Amino acid sequence: MRTADFDFHLPPELVAQTPAPRRDESRLLVLRRNTGQVSHRNFRDLLDYVSAGDVLVLNDSRVIPARLHGVNAHSGGKFEILLLEENSVNEWWALMRPAKRARVGTSMVIRDAAGNSSAVHATIVDRNQDGQRRLHFAGTPDISDALEALGEVPLPPYIHRADTSQWFEDRQRYQTVYAKLPGSVAAPTAGLHFTQSLLEEIQARDVELCFITLHVGLATFAPVKAETVQAHLMHEERFEVNAESAGSINDAKRAGRRVIAVGTTTVRVLESVAAANSGRIVPGAGRTRCFIYPPFDLKIVDALLTNFHLPRSTLLMLVSAFAAPKETCGRELILFAYAEGIRQRYRFFSYGDAMLIL
Questions:
Q1: 123 in Cβ contact with 106 (< 8 Å)
Q2: What is the secondary structure of 100-112 as a DSSP string?
Q3: At CB < 8 A and 24+ separation, what contacts does 336-341 make?
Q4: Rounded to an integer, what is the distance from CA 54 to the centroid of its chain?
Q5: Rounded to whole angstroms, how far apart are CA atoms 80 and 122?
Q6: Which of 83, 109, 355 is nearest to 218 (CA)?
Q7: Confidence (pLDDT) at 162
Q8: Which residues on adjacent β-strands are paired with residue 237?
Q9: Mean pLDDT, 10 residues at a time, over the chain (358 residues)?
Q10: Which residue, 97, 29, 41, 100, is CA-closest to 69?
Q11: At a CB cut-off of 8 Å and minimum separation 6, what does 283 contact?
């Protein structure tokens, strides 16, 4: 299967630059897999599609202010740093721009949110085959604790900010209301539509809420550069499943009740754990390279709530696999639904509208 098969044209004005005024005021496109029927609803209408006994599984990873700005201590050249994963205290793997000037041995002064030099500096101590730099930070006991003062919300590059006036709102809105464990460098965006009151209404219908954790990293947002889908190499991401959630999901599957995943990251955790454990969810922590693309035999997830994804992305490939399990025709079904969304002027990507696949 070619990567180009997952391409589509999106009018630039449909890329959402800001969230809906209220989280649950987004639109909701509902796609029924067995018939191809598309319905246009509002996000709060999700209540019409959940039933007593359903298990709704959400990713509770918390986005960290992972974008830093540094200045070369010798030349004054500027760097943008996106922290990816902590190796140990004050040692992180990161992406840097401009990459050509980010050489091993380069030392940088980190700037604060106002653009002033801080007491924190970083040195590039290594580089891996993927072009990531390993940074050692000094001038602070733990850079993780300094990120709130020094870092920015790691908004994706298609969201543009002319100034800092929206940063405070982004810190609130580029985070789910149930975010708990810090570690993501991009939001699990399907969950951005939920308010606490809506979650309570869902629970009042005897739907059980379960939480897993996947810290969103390079695997989720890295572009697919290979010509064929099969040649793409997924990066690892860290996950954790607690015993309570594992038990609830396993009980639901045994009883024939639905498991509804909120977001592609949730699907990847559940399906990768199930694949390693004969179709069961086993509690524990680990790392996954799970790459879901058509055809894929899903073992756990019965319905998927997600956003609209970028062309040629692994996320678009995942929802295509979900739209037609064990078959390759899901791509056509998803691209048809996306075309309907474009005609109806849905807002796309991280701050955009939502899609429910049943």
A1: yes
A2: GG--TT-EEEEE-
A3: 336/36, 336/38, 337/29, 337/31, 337/38, 338/8, 338/308, 339/8, 340/29, 340/38, 341/29, 341/308
A4: 23
A5: 12
A6: 83
A7: 82
A8: 288
A9: 97 97 97 97 98 98 97 94 96 96 97 91 95 97 96 95 83 97 97 98 98 95 95 95 98 98 98 97 97 97 98 98 97 98 98 98
A10: 97
A11: 241, 242, 243, 245, 246
Six-digit token string for 11: 């009018």
Using an 8 Å Cβ cutoff, are 300 and 349 in contact?
A: no
Which residues, 6 or more positions from 256, have their beta carbon under 8 angstroms from its beta carbon?
A: none
CB 119 within 8 A of CB 110: no
Integer CA distances (angstroms), 329 to 33, 293, 296, 317, in order: 11, 11, 11, 11
Euclidean distance between CA atoms 47 and 304, whole angstroms: 14
Identify the DSSP state of 234. P
| Secondary structure percentages of the chain, helix, strand, coil, to 5 | 30, 30, 40
Query: Domain residues of the chain, as ranges?
Result: 3-63+172-357, 67-150
Query: Looking at the DSSP assignment, which residues form a beta bridge with residue 184?
Result: 63
- In CATH terms, 67-150 corresponds, of 2.40.10.240, 2.60.40.10, 3.90.1150.10, 3.10.180.10, to 2.40.10.240
Amino acid identity, position 157: P
Given CA atoms 160, 178, 220, 229 in this order, what sign does their dihedral have?
negative
> In this structure, how many other beta carbons lie within 10 angstroms of the beta carbon of residue 75?
9
Question: What does pTM read for this prediction?
Answer: 0.95
Three-state secondary structure call for residue 201:
helix
Type of residue at 145: D
Q: What is the domain class of 3-63+172-357 according to CATH?
A: alpha beta
**Listing from the earlier edge strand, what are the strands of the sheet with 55-59?**
38-42, 27-31, 354-357, 303-307, 259-262, 55-59, 208-214, 237-241, 284-288
Residue 175 has what pLDDT? 98
Residue 318: both structure tokens together: 């995942």
Q: Which residues contact 312 (CB under 8 A, 6 or more apart)?
A: 3, 4, 6, 7, 223, 224
